């Protein structure tokens, strides 16, 4: 695009500028030639003066345009100098015609205008046409360069598009692999966790979104393992406490059995004591009867002793 812009700029700065300036030169040459005819047709000094003044003004514009041509022309600058020289050589011919008209030699002035003057103008026109042809050739060259560059640019764009497509497909596959591989690993770790394997640990190799996902899963597994470890420890403590409570209950049960046995023994002892008490009471009752009988016997013995 830069090359095409450059060729377009060259086309404008050189062939177009030269051609436009040459057209203005040609137009002013025609005006100068017409004004010289007005000089030849003038009937008084005032008409000659006005017509010759117009010729001088048109000539100034011609030289002004040749300054533009000299700057923009890409060919041999001597060609520009030669054209300017032709225009400068035309002035003595024009001055001769004007002087003849002022001196009243109208026929001779007309003859020079139609003869030597016309021939010189033809040379100027041929020189001008050379500039046009050269500018046209340069313009064709710039257009051809632009067309060639356009075709080259099209092929370059096609190649770039193909290469870019291949690279894009490669990048897409690579990115897909970067995304899918960690996700597959994450799924595998999740399946292991679902099966109860808390030793599974995802490998974190990147800091992108998938890496953050694996890191979060790794943290989750570590936290979950810690929670389960704490739960296991708590369960062990609860089991130990339950075992200790069971032992205590067994001791309490044994103690209760001993108490029950002691109570039963005490009950038996109480029954035995009760029997002993009954027996003792019976013995005591019998002893009282015996004592009473013995007292009566002693009284009888005493009475018998008194009687003796």
How is this structure best described in words?
With 308 residues, the chain is an all-alpha fold. Helices cover 92% and strands 0% of the residues. The chain has helices at residues 2-41, 45-72, 77-102, 106-194, 209-307. The radius of gyration is 71 Å and the shape is rod-shaped. The protein starts with a helix and ends with a helix.
Give the topology, please.
Blueprint: H1 2-41, H2 45-72, H3 77-102, H4 106-194, H5 209-307
Helix pairs in contact: 1-2, 1-4, 2-3, 3-4, 4-5
Low-confidence stretches: none
Helix count, DSSP H or I runs of 4 or more residues: 5
Helix content: over 70%
* Spatial extent as radius of gyration: 71 Å
* Proportion of residues in β-strands: under 5%
Q: Characterize the largest beta sheet: strand count, sense, and whether it forms a barrel.
A: none
Annotation, overall tally of beta strands: 0
Classification by helices and strands: mainly alpha
Order of H and E elements: HHHHH
């Amino acid at each position: 695009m830069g090359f095409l812009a450059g060729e377009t700029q060259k086309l404008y700065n050189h062939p177009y500028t030269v051609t436009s300036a040459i057209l203005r030169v040609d137009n002013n040459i025609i005006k100068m030639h017409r004004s010289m005819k007005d000089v030849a047709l003038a009937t008084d000094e005032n008409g000659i003066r006005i017509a010759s003044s117009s010729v001088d003004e048109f000539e100034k514009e011609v030289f002004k345009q040749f300054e533009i041509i000299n700057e923009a022309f890409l060919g041999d600058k001597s060609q520009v100098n030669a054209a300017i020289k032709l225009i400068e050589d035309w002035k003595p011919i024009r001055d001769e015609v004007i002087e003849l008209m002022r001196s009243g030699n109208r026929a001779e002035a007309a003859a020079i205008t139609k003869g030597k003057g016309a021939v010189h103008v033809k040379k100027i026109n041929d020189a001008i046409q050379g500039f046009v042809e050269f500018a046209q050739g340069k313009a064709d060259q710039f257009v051809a360069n632009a067309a060639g560059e356009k075709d080259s640019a099209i092929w370059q764009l096609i190649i770039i598009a193909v290469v870019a497509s291949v690279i894009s497909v490669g990048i897409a596959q690579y990115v897909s692999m970067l995304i899918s591989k960690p996700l597959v690993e994450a799924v595998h770790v999740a399946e292991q966790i679902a099966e109860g394997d808390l030793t599974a640990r995802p490998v974190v190799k990147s800091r992108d979104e998938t890496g953050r996902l694996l890191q979060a899963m790794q943290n989750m597994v570590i936290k979950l393992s810690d929670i389960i470890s704490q739960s296991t420890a708590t369960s062990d403590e609860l089991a130990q406490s339950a075992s200790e409570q069971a032992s205590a209950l067994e001791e309490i049960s044994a103690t209760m059995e001993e108490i029950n046995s002691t109570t039963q023994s005490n009950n038996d002892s109480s029954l035995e004591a009760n029997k002993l008490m009954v027996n003792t009471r019976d013995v005591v009752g019998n002893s009282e009867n015996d004592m009473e009988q013995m007292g009566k016997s002693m009284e009888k013995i005493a009475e018998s002793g008194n009687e003796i």
